[in-house]
Design brief:
This protein is mostly helical. It has nine helices and three strands, in the order αααααααββαβα. The chain is globular and about 50 Å long.
Length: 246
């Protein structure tokens, strides 16, 4: 399970974390495969490879972890490690529980959840560790107009008290950070065909669970950080639809 990975990372032992992850990949444990996907996608305890991450998310979805469908859909929408397709991304997003009534076209839904998935990633990797605590982050997005509205936000941790002050302020301004990440995501995703985007809206969650980010170390120079070349990742097997070499 994922717990040995988190335990090893909390002790700064990335080699042990990756070893535990590799064992889970080999035995086909969907939550572990998903966790390794997040790790390699964001460069947590190993070298970052956004294209390779698609294989882990796809495999976790095939193993029955349908929450992984949204991360894989984001990869499909971005064209990272797999052929770019908002249509295919939309199919995956329905698998992940979005727009279950099929009101929105697959193309528009795929575009919406690609923006949402990338915005969630930008939040997880930009706000301070532990900034978001309990509670769901949900937004409503209308692809045809580009309008986004925040429906709910998670609770935010409080900053440490300043000298001579008894007041504690939120660690981040959640609405501002969410809006900023959303705008950045809109600018980074492949430009959609505006003529076929629905003017219907879809409400969707943004995954800002920072458990891995809070426990792990991002690779890079510095004392105590692992050397990516020394850490070998097990690649998931039997994943269809990947680009050659991934």
């Amino acid at each position: 399970m994922v717990r040995p990975i988190l335990s090893a990372m909390s002790h700064g032992d990335c080699a042990a974390a990756v070893k535990a992850g590799n064992e889970g990949v080999t035995s086909g444990e969907a939550p572990v495969v998903f966790a390794l996907g997040r790790m390699v996608n964001e460069g947590i305890c190993t070298a970052q490879d956004r294209n390779a991450a698609a294989s882990y998310f796809a495999r976790a979805n095939e193993l029955g972890d349908h929450g992984s469908a949204l991360d894989f859909a984001t990869k499909v929408g971005l064209g990272e490690g797999v052929e770019q397709s908002y249509e295919r991304a939309g199919e995956l997003c329905r698998t992940g529980g979005l727009d279950p009534q099929g009101r929105m076209s697959r193309y528009a839904l795929g575009y919406a959840c690609t923006v949402g998935g990338l915005a969630a990633e930008l939040l997880r990797t930009s706000v301070p560790r532990g900034a978001f605590r309990s509670g769901a982050l949900r937004v409503e997005f209308t692809p045809g107009t580009g309008a986004m509205e925040i429906r709910s936000t998670p609770s935010v941790a409080l900053a440490e008290e300043g000298t001579g002050s008894n007041l504690r302020h939120p660690l981040v301004d959640a609405p501002r950070e969410i809006t900023r990440a959303w705008k950045n995501a809109l600018a980074q995703v492949p430009k959609p065909d505006a003529a076929i985007l629905d003017k219907l809206s879809v409400e969707m969650p943004l995954d800002v669970d920072m458990t891995l980010e809070s426990a792990g170390l991002r690779t890079g120079s510095g004392e105590g950080r692992p050397q990516p070349a020394d850490i070998k990742l097990a690649m998931p097997l039997n994943v269809s639809g990947m680009k050659p070499g991934h």
